[in-house]
UniProtKB/TrEMBL annotation:
Its EC number is 3.1.4.-. Belongs to the metallophosphoesterase superfamily. YfcE family. Keywords: Hydrolase, Metal-binding. This is Phosphoesterase. Residues 1-147 form the Calcineurin-like phosphoesterase domain. InterPro entries: Calcineurin-like_PHP_lpxH (IPR024654), Metallo-depent_PP-like (IPR029052), PdiEstase_YfcE_CS (IPR020935), Phosphodiesterase_MJ0936/Vps29 (IPR000979). It comes from Streptomyces zhihengii. Its cofactor is a divalent metal cation. It is an enzyme of class 3 (hydrolase).
Length: 165
C-alpha cells in the first residue's frame, strides 16, 4: 500500500495552488494522509476528489469550514500498522515521549505544524512530519513524504524535495 504524507499546504496563503508533482503523487497513492493547516476548503475538496482514500485532520490555521469536516486526531489501520494523524505535537524537545504518552497504541504518528521534516522512533512509536509542499519557512526545500506499508512494516520512506520557486 503506497502512502502519501503531506501537511501544511496553506493554500492560498503560502501558495496559489498545490504543486503539480504533489497532485501526481495523490493519484498514485492508495492513501493520502494530511496533517492539517489546509487553510482553504477547496484544497480539501480537491484532495477528496483525487485521492482513493484521504485521512486528514484540521490544524491551527483551519477555520470553521474545515473543522466541521475534519477531526483533530484521526486513526486508521493501514498495511497492518496503527496510524495516527495530528497537526501539533508541541516543542521538538521531549516530542517522542510526549507523543507516545498522548497517543498510546499507535505504531506511526504523522504530524505537521513546524514545516520541518522529521523522522524519529521511540518506544515503538515512529514520528513522521513530511514538512510542507508549499511553504519551506527556514528549510532549504518544500517537501512531502511517500512510503509503502504492508504486513505490519513501513518501508521505502522517501522525503521528496520540491524544486525552488
Amino acid at each position: 500500500m503506497r502512502l502519501l504524507l503531506v501537511a501544511d499546504t496553506h493554500v492560498p496563503l503560502r501558495a496559489k495552488r498545490l504543486p503539480d508533482e504533489l497532485l501526481r503523487e495523490v493519484e498514485r497513492a492508495d492513501v493520502v494522509l494530511h496533517a492539517g493547516d489546509w487553510v482553504d476548503v477547496a484544497t480539501l475538496d480537491l484532495l477528496e476528489a483525487r485521492a482513493r482514500r484521504l485521512i486528514g485532520v484540521f490544524g491551527n490555521n483551519d477555520g470553521p469550514g474545515l473543522r466541521a469536516r475534519l477531526p483533530e486526531v484521526a486513526r486508521a489501520r493501514l498495511g497492518g500498522l496503527r496510524f495516527g494523524v495530528v497537526h501539533e505535537t508541541g516543542p521538538a524537545r521531549g516530542r517522542e515521549e510526549r507523543c507516545a504518552a498522548r497517543h498510546p497504541g499507535l505504531d506511526v504518528l504523522v504530524f505537521g505544524h513546524s514545516h520541518i521534516p522529521w523522522d524519529t522512533s521511540a518506544g515503538g512509536l515512529r514520528l513522521l512530519n513530511p514538512g510542507s509542499p508549499t511553504d519551506r519557512r527556514r528549510q532549504p526545500y518544500r517537501t512531502y513524504m511517500t512510503c509503502v506499508v504492508g504486513e505490519g512494516t513501513l518501508r521505502d520512506l522517501v522525503l521528496h524535495r520540491l524544486p525552488q520557486r
